[in-house]
Amino acid sequence: MISRIDLRGDALPEGPALRDLLPRAEFDVQAALEKVRPICEDVHHRGDAALIEYAERFDGVRLDQVRVPAAALTRALEELDPAVRAALEESIRRARTVHREQRRATHTTQVVPGGSVTEKWVPVERVGLYAPGGRSVYPSSVVMNVVPAQEAGVESIALASPAQAEFNGLPHPTILAACALLGVDEVYAAGGATAVAMFAYGTESCPPANMVTGPGNIWVAAAKRYFTGRIGIDAEAGPTEIAVLADDTADPVHVASDLISQAEHDPLAAAVLVTDSAELADAVEKELAPQVAATRHVDDRIVPALSGKQSAIVLVDGIDEGLKVVDAYGAEHLEIQTADAAALADRVKNAGAIFIGPWAPVSLGDYAAGSNHVLPTGGCACHSSGLSVQSFLRGIHIVDYTQDALAEVAHHVVTLAEAEDLPAHGAAIKARFGWKVPESK
Q1: Which residue among the candidates 151, 236, 264, 332 is catalytic per the annotation?
Q2: 3-state SS assignment for residue 242
Q3: What is the pLDDT of residues 95-104, one digit of tens each?
Q4: Mean pLDDT of 308-318
Q5: CA gap 338, 327 in Å, rounded
Q6: Secondary structure (3-state) at 295
Q7: How far is the first Cα of the chain from the last one, in angstroms, to the nearest whole number?
Q8: CA-based diameter of the chain, in Å?
Q9: Mean pLDDT of 171-183
Q10: Which of 254, 333, 335, 373 is the catalytic position?
Q11: Is 332 a catalytic residue?
Q12: Which phi-psi region, left, alpha or beta, contains residue 39 (left: φ > 0; alpha: ψ -120 to 50)?
């Protein structure tokens, strides 16, 4: 069901050479970009009419309007299963607890007497958030996007999720209920690239946004790439990934269940075990079959994911070598199930989120750890972070210098301006002192 890659015996290569040995899903955003371009431009020119047409083509439902009526949000919350409501409320509470601590404060640095630089943090004015609605329903993604935006102080928050024929053209009612719980009343029945285009360009019913965040399929990722520069984005999210770094102390039942938990997202989902224990590898492989047989989404998601080239059991000589492998891989989710998991986690350089030991599975982070589950995929953890309050904030420097403070450094500014052959830069300094640069004190 899952392949093996044996890296034992020889010294591991460095950098890209090691990355090339590791499994990864094919995710050609550039090819998808050419297909979403005309769709995005159609939304630009025809607005809501285009959104309604694409909802009928892609989602099989004819909409009367794109914006979800307020009554539908209220009704969805009233009809929500009380157990699901309680779980969402706890997820929101924990996410707020973590994300509230991320908010940066304005800070002033006194560079010299009379000269200071203040950095203030200003939230994005308006964001469009996306909650997928394809193979599964993701109210957790509503929580993970809305909470950090709210804690950042974003004043205008809109959310889009695909229209569902089963629910008379509305997004899934659990999505709507989550929005109602969070106080988000601007919700649109729009999916994929059309939702991103709606937020980027604006339509008759939806004002344009400054930023779009949220996970989605390859069409969402391609649309984000298309609009990069016009709007801010969080990331071009690819198929979900889990990597487990484990030694012979790990429980194969736990490891197998965690690999399966991510494989059930999508046939392109990646599940990777890195271990120095051949015995654990054998036990996990043996454990996969009965656990897969006992769950759902087997033939359409889990088996294709586990048997695809993006998933593998990677054998290494030791845990230090395993650490090199997971750093090269840069997993979205990295579980460490070793004898010294916490100490090993401190040494990890590249991961979207790290889960320590047997009692912190990725599923906890997906819903109720308090951490954010919108994380970098496809190896992007080597340069990018997951969604946070900082994603919705902009740092602005405020420069405040007195005449004496400028006079003290004026000759340096003029010298550097002349070194860069930008004499007008220096002239802007000289003009303030009668065109004669003050001597340094």
Answers
A1: 332
A2: strand
A3: 999 999 999 9
A4: 97
A5: 16
A6: coil
A7: 75
A8: 85
A9: 97
A10: 333
A11: yes
A12: alpha
